[in-house]
Fold Protein NRT1/ PTR FAMILY 4.6.
Amino acid sequence: MEDENINLQKKMSSSSSDESSSRRRVATERLPTLDKVFIQRIFANIEEDMDKGQNWNRWEGYADWRNRPALRSHHGGMFAASFVLVVEVLENLAYLANASNLVLYLSKFMNFSPSASANNVTNFMGTAFLLALLGGFLSDSYFTTYCIYLISAITEFLGLLMLTMQAHIPSLKPPFCTSVNRNASCQEAERGKAVLLFMGLYLVALGVGGIKGSLPPHGAEQFDERTRHGRKQRSTFFNYFVFCLSCGALIAVTFVVWIEDNKGWQWGFGIATAAILISIPIFLLGSATYRIKIPTGSPITTIVKKRRTGIENMSTTPTTTTEASEDEEHANSNVEIQTAAQDLKFLHRALETMPAPRWLHCNVKQVEEVKSVIKILPIFMSTIMLHCCLAQLSTFSIQQAATMNTKIGSLRIPPASLPVFPVLFIMILAPVYNHIVIPVSRKLTNTEMGITHLQRIGTGLVLSIIAMATAALVEIKRKKAALQSGLINSTEPLPITFLWVALQYLFLGSADLFSLAGMMDFFFTEAPFSMRSLATSLSWASLAMGYYLSSVLVELVNCITGTFRHTPWLYGSNLNHYHLERFYWFMCILSGLNFLHYLFWARRYSYKTLGPDNQKETGITNESPEV
């Protein structure tokens, strides 16, 4: 019966359309020829406008969570991105709740030596941030940011669940070493216990990497970059993403660390497990509002193919580009139109016709995409030194504070809670920057963004230089207090408050706010449409390489100074005998040279331009910004 009704409706609709077309034909036949043409054009324009109206309501290149076309009236916007911000609070809480205090767990409960514990923590954190590149690559190529987040969150949950079980069940841990037998060799976690430990840790690292590589671009994808309002909202999103990241970190380094130290590590791991588990349904609550970018294939394959074609064609004479390439370039309108730049000219050889397999043929759009990626790499390399400074201060600064008076009134603050200072500074500065600094700078510069992405990153680099100089001066003051009080060889607290160390954290927190939010916004905006998740992951890869570089620099400094001065700068068990102030000055000089290197590339960088219509609307130009 239902089929008969459907067929009847189809016949009625077809007959009505045939009847209307016949009436239109009869009406036009009674009119002169000019009137016929005029009426036919009117009907054609009406049909064209109806098609345009349907297409205008769709987000081209995006789908909803059910893989249906995303609609402008239902998907995207700040409301959709707000779910991402809430999830980031829980995700960073789950990660930092254990990473910030993990070295203590490995040395005290898994019986690893202090050096082995430190190396394991460094490897764990560096691996987690490097795996963000894998998460971004998979989001761009084969899956979506939506799917990668869910897979990664489940992976991190499984890893934390394994660590919680090991911390709770005594038989899954090595025998506890008391202070009496600490001088004897303690039994480290080995075989099955070590396998369970490291399997849990690196499942967490894999999950964290996938989330870092998919969650920020997923939130940024909710805004329409073709409008001024959409770009402003996206910049605001990245600012508050760093703010929410800091909110999770604040809870982790205060409440959860206290729980781990006083109630047991099984409670700390349990809180982290619950946090990442709760984040999954919160993320799913926003499914109906998300617009999700459709994957377009492997960007790495595109880069390799274009580089190979460009190199192979360097010895050929220029010829015209094939029409097929030009047609393909404009076939997909969801990708921003880019003007052909004059730099990296050797890549234009990939456009030239030559006897080659069809899969090696290139068009203008593909070559411009590769050039966009190559152009942002020097900026990426310039940010590694900043994160090297962050890594150094997060280790030595805590040891400095441990030798100082850590009381505020009658309250004693544990040195491990020192990271709360940069977190608090970021939480205060993020709203101030977004609601005061940006509006004022827009009025002063009469530009859309007020402060460009490269200016924000450059400001972060300058603040890191100031932070290292401040750290050196504070260390000089600390050692002077040790000498004057006669406590240079003592383990008693020095008569100087640890709040002096908070000064360098003030500049570090400011540097992190400017650089991290600026880097994510810059890489997302300047990367090709098909590589945005991977490019945004460079922000986390820079952090990972900063951790690795910090370890290399410490070993290198000790090796060189130990050769020429016989006593390495950073050697021994007593921090008062270290030449830490010299190391900080050395880091300050390296940061200054790195800033000059950054200026060289930043002043020559030309921002990506949009199509003529958008360019006229937004005023975006191809000129290099002042840094």
Observations:
- Residues 228-262 form the longest helix (35 residues).
